[in-house]
Design brief:
Helices cover 49% and strands 17% of the residues. The protein starts with 6 loop residues before the first helix and ends with a strand. The chain is elongated and about 95 Å long. By secondary structure, the chain is an alpha/beta fold.
């Protein structure tokens, strides 16, 4: 809520709110069981606030020397509300964006008024109305209940306390103190409301948790109070994570949590809600005639985007694999996970892989993976969901097959993140590219480094023939050796592999050999095939279809 005469002060409050939420983000994630136990409420609300902060950073850079009134309150709050809308992810993020939008609408409706406790109370009331209106079937015991009871507490404080209207010339310190004084009891009320949520929502009671979104909201407001006062935040309860054995919500039957924005003219949310409910659930459609934000749980994200026709622009598409999220969350809460969430890197690699050993090889050098299956051919939506899971601002996708490049490029176009595709055509080339990535560099810089690493690479492979050769060179089951996609040897596996290694080793110092599923030679026999002066590294990839994948540097 715009409570200040300059943007820097407003930005500092939003930054404090986000910082407090980030500090408790994993705690919020661990409470998440409604509407789906996918463990991302903290992430989604933080991303929504991050979008607001990024927009404020843009405005501050452009308008640093002008006051809010000089810029225009309407322009600022419209920009902030739109940023929240476009940045929102998940149920909780979309509802938070609607709270921000409702408050913004109230502020715009009162041009020239100083933002004081009375206006804060009105903005909170409008925010509650907007949030409830965004949900087809509002559930009590959620963030909606918590914000409603916080707004009601502010209204009571205003009704029974001294006059809280401030003089238009009130100094900034007085304004900050007055707003903090009205928000602090609301935070207390919010905590009480959060503690009561299990009484109102059976799924929370059965899981032994409080509502994640409501808890996150109290953390956000505590951060606001801290920034206004320049002191420590009001103390917020810590809540234990959910029991692993809780019953899941029915939306577990749908795989993808899908969020996207639609831009056009004359947009009406109502008919789209009905159509989206025909292909999924947990539907939210919010916005105005020009911009809508959509959230739906579905098995077919592309079908969801197609419902809006050709006369609109679809953007900010974000797809999360809820089945994978639920598994990851359950492992974490049962003590079998990998500990705290990884810190957000600037850039990371996402590799399409086939085989557990290949996955382990990529992960051992810091890359993230998406399972391409036996044919190494994931869908665009599977790649997009994997991009969402990568804890980095920017992502370089390694398709590792010519058949995957188009799907990877489409996923890159659709993703809300900055995504670059380095068109690797084999898994062994992908490994070389992944080694060249520096997580502190931008994706574009990494793309250049990865391309340079791969361009001089020589690639080979040996696979069992699937059928007899029409030219009579080999029969089904014989070994067939390739160098850069050209057949150079066939017949006995050991002799064929030796021929490929010798061909690759010309003028090379290092040859890497990755053994696949059912490879008929031991590591020792493979190592004995190394030409003099060449270092031969043997690794287990477990990939299907190919006995050995090779690369020479």
């Amino acid at each position: 809520m715009v409570a200040f005469t300059n943007l820097d002060r407003f930005r500092s409050v939003v930054a404090a709110a986000l910082s407090h939420l980030e500090a408790r983000r994993e705690e919020v994630n661990d409470l998440n069981v409604f509407p789906v136990a996918d463990g991302d409420t903290g992430d989604n609300m933080a991303l929504t606030l991050r979008a607001v902060l990024d927009e404020l950073d843009r405005l501050v850079a452009e308008e640093r020397d002008r006051t809010i009134d000089e810029i225009g309150r309407e322009e600022i709050v419209d920009a902030v509300a739109r940023a929240a809308l476009l940045g929102a992810r998940g149920n909780s993020g979309v509802i938070l964006s609607q709270l921000i939008r409702g408050a913004a609408e109230e502020l715009v409706s009162r041009p020239g008024e100083l933002v004081d406790p009375t206006l804060i109370g009105a903005a909170m009331a409008r925010a509650v109305d907007r949030a409830y209106a965004s949900v087809r079937e509002p559930a009590e015991g959620t963030i909606l209940t918590v914000v409603r009871e916080m707004a009601h507490r502010i209204a009571k404080e205003l009704a029974h306390g001294p006059d809280t209207r401030l003089d238009p010339d009130a100094p900034a310190e007085t304004q900050d103190a007055a707003i903090a004084a009205i928000l602090e009891p609301a935070v207390e009320e919010g905590q009480e409301s959060v503690r009561r949520t299990p009484e109102l929502l059976p799924v929370l009671r059965e899981a032994g948790v409080v509502d994640a979104g409501g808890h996150a909201l109290t953390v956000i407001f505590a951060g606001v109070v801290a920034a206004l006062r320049g002191t420590e935040a009001p103390e917020i309860d810590h809540h234990a994570p959910a029991r692993v054995t809780h019953p899941e919500h029915a939306s577990e039957t749908y795989r993808y949590c899908t969020n996207f924005a639609v831009t056009g003219t004359g947009l009406d949310p109502a008919p789209f809600r009905d159509q989206l409910e025909g292909i999924g659930d947990s539907v939210l459609v919010v916005g105005d005639q020009h911009t809508l934000k959509i959230h739906v749980h579905t098995d077919d994200p592309e079908a969801a985007t197609r419902l809006f026709g050709d006369g609109v622009e679809v953007s900010h598409l974000d797809v999360a694999d809820m089945h994978a999220q639920i598994v990851e969350r359950t492992e974490k809460l049962s003590g079998n996970g990998h500990g705290p969430a990884e810190p957000l890197a600037r850039c990371a690699a996402l590799a399409v892989v086939a085989g557990d050993g290949m996955r382990r090889l990529f992960e051992s050098i810091g890359a993230h993976t998406v399972d391409g299956g036996p044919t190494l051919n994931p869908s665009t939506m599977e790649i997009l969901a994997a991009i969402h899971q990568v804890p980095a601002e920017e992502v370089v996708v390694l398709p590792n097959s010519s058949n995957v490049i188009m799907a990877a490029e489409r996923a890159a176009e659709l993703s809300e993140k900055l995504v670059l595709v380095e068109p690797t055509r084999s898994q062994q080339a992908g490994l070389t590219a992944a080694i060249a990535l520096d997580p502190s560099r931008a994706a574009e810089e990494n793309g250049v480094a990865m391309h340079d690493a791969v361009v001089e690479l020589s690639i080979g492979s040996v696979a069992p023939a699937a059928r007899d050769d029409v030219h009579g060179r080999f029969v089904a089951g014989d070994a067939v050796g390739f160098v850069d996609e050209e057949i150079i040897a066939w017949g006995d596996p050991e002799a064929t592999l030796g021929a490929v290694i010798r061909s690759l080793a010309r003028d090379r110092e290092i040859v890497t050999c990755i053994s696949g599923e059912g490879a008929p030679l031991s590591d020792e026999r493979i190592e004995a095939l190394a030409p003099e002066g060449v270092e031969l590294e043997v690794r287990d990839g477990g990939q299907p279809a190919y006995w050995w994948l090779l690369a020479a540097e």
